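Look over this entry.
=====
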Amino acid sequence: MAAHPEVAEMGYEEARDALAEVVKQLEAGGLSLEDSLALWERGEALAAVCERHLAGARERVERALASVEDE
């Protein structure tokens, strides 16, 4: 993410949508190798942001379930 600090502050939906756009552009082809690599790196950063958000949501659900089980 160091190469793409702008993605670190994105919300889940924004990062997910941006990642989908990256995938679409890569699948379409026609980019130079350098542009493809730069886009791939951005996609990796976006995927990391999505994973961070999902991990946080997973933790919240697990805490909620644990509190219900304790009751």
Summary: The first helix runs from residue 12 to 28.
